[in-house]
Amino acid sequence: MTVTNRRFVLASRPTAAPREDNFRLETAPIPELGAGQVLVRHHYLSLDPYMRGRMSDQKSYAAPQPLGEVMIGGTVGEVVATRSAGFVVGDKVVGMGGWQEYAIVGGDGAGLRKVDTAHVPLQAYLGAVGMPGVTAWVGLNAICEPKEGETVVVSAASGAVGGIVGQLAKAKGCRAVGVAGGKDKCDYVVGELGFDACVDYKAAAGPEAFFAMLRGATPSGIDCYFENVGGMILDAVMLQMNAFGRIAMCGMIAGYDGQPLPLQHPALILRSRLKVQGFIVSEHPQHWPRALSELGAGVATGKLKYRESIANGLDSAPAAFIGLLQGKNFGKQLVKLI
Amino acid sequence: MTVTNRRFVLASRPTAAPREDNFRLETAPIPELGAGQVLVRHHYLSLDPYMRGRMSDQKSYAAPQPLGEVMIGGTVGEVVATRSAGFVVGDKVVGMGGWQEYAIVGGDGAGLRKVDTAHVPLQAYLGAVGMPGVTAWVGLNAICEPKEGETVVVSAASGAVGGIVGQLAKAKGCRAVGVAGGKDKCDYVVGELGFDACVDYKAAAGPEAFFAMLRGATPSGIDCYFENVGGMILDAVMLQMNAFGRIAMCGMIAGYDGQPLPLQHPALILRSRLKVQGFIVSEHPQHWPRALSELGAGVATGKLKYRESIANGLDSAPAAFIGLLQGKNFGKQLVKLI
C-alpha cells in the first residue's frame, strides 16, 4: 500500500495543564495487512476527559499512556481493507483506534464492533450510544439508583455524559438539575435537554453564592449526584444531600492537573448516611448490552438529545482536547477526520 | 415512695471540647408509678461518642439533646417496681435510661429489653452484646462485606466498637489491622484481641510517618476500612486502599468539636473505585437479631473479648465522658452506679 498514516503520540507528560507540545505529530507508511488483520479508516476521533489521566504517570486505575506511542482514543470508521473473515470492506466499526487517521486491528478485529448506521449516526457511537452514554447509564442506574420523585443533580451537565444523565433521570420521573458553566450551556440543558433546572457556576461569585443558587434549584434537597467535576461543586452538593443520598463519582476534572482538591466536609458522609462510590464504566461490562440498546433506541427515536463540538482534521486534536479540559466544548467533543 | 433520683441534665452546649459545666446534677423525688409503668434502677450507664453530637444543635442525623433534660444514654439495670404485666421485680433490662440512677419507663416497658445474665455479664449488653457490638457487626458485614484473605483496618481499635470489628474480621479469615493511640492499646489489640497488627498513631511524628507505618502493616493494601476517627488517619488509609475497597463511616470523633476536617484526596474514591458509606446502626434494625445472637454467643463462649473502663458513681460521668472523647478510656467506657 502507498497510503500514509498520520498520528499523534504522547511526546511528554504535562506538569500542570496539558499543552500542545505534549503531543507530537508523526507520519508513517501503512504496512501490508497480516492474516486476520483489518485496516480501519477513522471518520471520527473521540476526545474525553479520561485521556488527561492517562497522560500522567501518577497511580491511577489504568496504566499511563506510554511516551512515544499513539494517544489512546475511541474512534469510529470504515473497514477499507481486510484479511479477516469477520469483516468486509465498507463495514462501519467502533473501536479504540487512537489519535490517528488509520488503524490496523489484529486478532480478527478483536475490540472492533460493527455498528448499524441506518438509524443512528456513526459518530453517536462515540457519544450517546458509546462510552459516554453507557457511563451515564451505569452511574445513574447501577450506582445512584434514583427512585421516581427524587432529585438528581449532575455536573458538566451539557457534556456528553452529563446531558444523558439528566435525560435518563427525567425519564425515570426524577427532578433533574444540571450544573454547567455559562448561560448558553444552562439554557441548552433546560431548554433543549429538558432538565428542570440548571445552575451556572460561572455566575456565582464564590462557593457561598454557588451554594445558595444550588439550594434554590433543589428545594427538596438532593438524593443523587453524578459527579464529573469535583472541588467547589462537590462541596456544595454534599451540604445539600438528603439522608441516604448516593453520589456516583465519575470524574473530578477540576483536579486533573494535580492541584490539591480536598473535600471540605467528609463528616457529612456520616451525618447524612451517604454512599459515595467511584466507578469506571469499562469495569461494568454486564450493563453494556442493555445500556447500548436503550441508548440506541433513544437516539434512533429522537427522544435522547445530544450536541457535538466538532474539530476538523487530526491536526486540531491537541487544541480541541485542551479546550475540552477547560470546558470550551459544548456537548460531545469529536475530531472529524474525513 | 421515698427514693430520690439523681440525674445529669445538659446545662449548656459546648462551643469546643465539652467541659464538666456543660452538665448539671439534679436531684428529684421519684413519683408513684402509673399504670403500665416500670421503675428501673440502673446498674451501669454507657458512655459513647455519639453523645457528643447530641450536645450540639448542629444539623445531624438525630435531633439535639434538649437543654435541661436528662442526658441521653444506654443503661442496664434491674426492675425494682412494676405496674406492667410484662415485668416482674428482679428482671434485668437494657434500655435508654439516660444519665440517672433510676428511670421510670412507661408504655408497659416500651424500649426496655429483658436480658439473660446467666452467660453474659449484665454490662456487656451495653458493649459487645449491645449497640457498640451491633455497630461493629453491621459496619463490617453489611457495609464493608470483607472476603476471606482481605485486609480490614479499623481505627479506635481498642474501643468498644473497634475491638469487635477486628475480632469479627479475623473470624472471617481476614487480616485485621488496628489503629490506636499508645503502645498499651496496641499491645492489647494484638496480644489479647488477636489482631494481626496495630499502628500506634501517637508514635508517628506526623502524617507521612503515620502513612509509612500503616503501609508497613498492610503489605497487601487495604480492602476494608471501618472508620471511627477521621482526619489524618482517614487520609492515610485512603492512599493505601486497594481497588474496589469499601469504607464504612461509623464515626469521625476527630471532628466532633467543630474543627474543620477536610478529606485531602477525594479523587482517590474515583481512582480506586471505592465505596464510602456512612451508617447509623439504629437504621439497620433488620440486622440486630442475628448480630446480637452471634455476639452473645461469642461473649458467652469467651471467644469474643473486650475490655471495660469503669468510672464509679453517677458523679463521675461528665469527666469520664470528656476522657472518652480524648481517648483516655481503654475499651468500653461505663459508669457503675451501684
What this model shows, in words?
The structure is a homodimer. The relative contact order of chain A is 0.16. The first copy, chain A, has 2 domains: about 5-125 and about 305-335, Medium-chain alcohol dehydrogenases, catalytic domain (Quinone Oxidoreductase, Chain A, domain 1, Alpha-Beta Complex), CATH 3.90.180; about 130-280, NAD(P)-binding Rossmann-like Domain (Rossmann fold, 3-Layer(aba) Sandwich), CATH 3.40.50.720. The first copy, chain A, is globular, with a radius of gyration of 20 Å. In chain A, strands 3, 4, 5, 6, 7, 14 and 15 form a 7-stranded mixed beta sheet that branches. The first copy, chain A, has a 6-stranded parallel beta sheet with strand order 10-9-8-11-12-13, sandwiched between helices. Chain A has about 350 residues and is an alpha/beta fold. In chain A, helix 7 (about 265-270) links the parallel strand 12 and strand 13. The model of chain A has no long low-confidence stretch (mean pLDDT about 95). Chain A contains 9 helices and 15 strands. Chain A has helices at about 50-55, 130-145, 160-170, 185-190, 205-215, 230-240, 265-270, 290-300, 315-325, and strands at about 5-10, 25-30, 40-45, 75-80, 90-95, 100-105, 115, 150-155, 175-180, 195-200, 220-225, 240-250, 275-280, 310, 330-335. Strand 13 (about 275-280) of chain A pairs antiparallel with strand 13 of chain B, so a sheet runs across the interface.
List keywords for this structure.
six-stranded parallel β-sheet; alpha/beta; Rossmann fold; Quinone Oxidoreductase, Chain A, domain 1; 338 residues; globular; 2 domains; 15 strands; homodimer
